[in-house]
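User: Hey, my collaborator sent me this sequence without any context and asked if I could get a structure. I don't really work with proteins. Can you help?
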Amino acid sequence: MSAHDRPRLEPLLLDLGRNYRWGWHKPTRRLVDQIRALAGTEPNAHPLVAIAALDHTAWSALVDDRATVAVIEDAHASLTAELATAPPRVTAYFSPEFGINESLPQYSGGLGILAGDHLKAASDENLPLLGMGLFYREGFFQQSVVNGRQTERYQQQDPVMLGATDTGIIVDAPLGSVTAQAKIWRIDVGRIPLYLLDTDLESNTAAVRSITDRLYSGDQEHRLRQELVLGIGGVRALEALGIAPTCFHLNEGHAGLLVLELIKRARRAGAENITAALEHIRPITLFTTHTPVPAGIDRFPRELFTRYVEPWATANDLDCDELLELGVLASDGPVKPFNMAAFCLSAAGRANGVSKLHGAVSREMFAAVPLGPRISSVTNGVHARTWVSDELQELFDTELGTSWSEGDAATWAKAPALAPALVRAAWQPGRHRLVDLVSSATGTTLDPDALTIGFARRFATYKRAGLLLTDRKRLAALLADPTRPMQFVFAGKAHPADNDGKALLAMVNEFAASTESSSRFVFVQNYDIDIARTIYGGCDVWLNNPIRPMEACGTSGEKAALNGGLNCSIRDGWWDEMTDGRNGWDIPTSELDGAERDAEEAASLYTLLESEIAPLFYEPSAGRASDAWIARVCDAWSTLGPQVVAARMVRDYDTRYYRP
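Assistant: No problem. I've predicted the 3D structure and written it out in structure-token form, which is a compact way to encode the shape of the chain:
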């Protein structure tokens, strides 16, 4: 090889770096790690940043390494062949956020991570799907914890260096008396194109340019403007791209205003009024509700909504008051805000919750809305090749067969026969990565062989991050046990405007810094996809203790389960339908309310930790996970593996909703 090979290899590397398949395609991911090391960039730098940082010496080393050149060529050939099989796009998946990779900070939490996993699984299954969202120039916030308190900072994002391609197309979106122009970026997620709208254009006013500045920031007016751009602008973007979907999938109510543009088109096609237009669009619309928590549903004051939508209604010869009535939910009270979930359920033809329990709760919650009683459910899943550690993937591929990641039940049925020594060997690197992360982030050194319990998620109050601290004396005794050591790793962000969530986060950090923690209770700041993967890969137990039934699904426990973490959970969300008495532990749900409920459920949790979990882990003696523990993990893999993967989830959507 010679330096003359750089002009041939660099375009191949750039193609690989622009397509986010590198995040879950093992050979490409290892290649990316090698490029980062050669370039001397941060370990999680975007591949395009690393490629741009390669100097002459690094390029010389690269092109002279025949093995690496072969990997580049093979990975590019594999990607090219995969893309050649992609079908025309007929399902449009609209979402306000997408969690594809930690290097693309266009997500805040579970909704975005789910959307990212949906696209990746759709790519693996070769579904005719595309994603539509917004490109946030400052993404979601970076978290710092100073004196136990969360602070937020934002960083400018360069779409080109994040793998986005400018389509060269700009679309308009009406915002009351003004019009926003939005550029369409394209990001490739395996076979799936993700289109993101960006209003940061010189042709827009400063106020309009700022619409796509940050994810989930600003006031209600800012949120409404974002949702108008996503909904109306998104449908117009697809038309400009020459794409005519046969199914519009609304991932939560934030995407619901796409219905306005569909109504306009139905009117253009001959529908006489709103009622007739809705009959026209219902066969092609699916609404997925993601929360039974009222605070998670957008409600816009009628005056605000009217100010932005009435000019659109007038221009299309429609009655704005009739439109407003579609967004009324009786339980919202006499002020009648425009409820986006109610609007979506009034307009869409089909709807689902994200677990069986959530479906039942949603049918009751929205019983007064036309589609409410017919809400079904598709339980969320997680993208296995993204979340499972490399070592466990290798173990599963070798011992079970590669179709485990597709949710093949026969493949997972082999898990109980896995040798404990093989499982321990596959776990060890992940346990040490978690120890290294905690040491770097907090200065505390954990024991890689001790029973490790994880809690990492958004710090919303209903998730009760502080439940474990209800009886600090009892918790301190667990942490101080010299014969059966137990350690806890917490992580997560509170919404910048959620003062109660921030107070919970401060309480957790205060305990972590106290002597009661015995240096076995830590909080890792700036939670993101990469930190999440590390925590999942190093924990033995995953703690989930929301107020039932407020957890719609709760996919963090699914990711932990695939990595061998046993769930200890309130019977809520996905766990309610998948627990079988052996694949984890149920925290009994109290019939009480408020502080009394919390005290009773916390006491049950302590008892499980003391009397069942720690004894099983350390049986027959302290030092490492017992064979009996590993047998329980393998049993959990056999029962949960086929159910919790996103491949199963997208197949459910495809067969039940996407196909005409």
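In plain terms: The two ends are 52 Å apart (CA to CA). You can pass these tokens on to your collaborator as they are.
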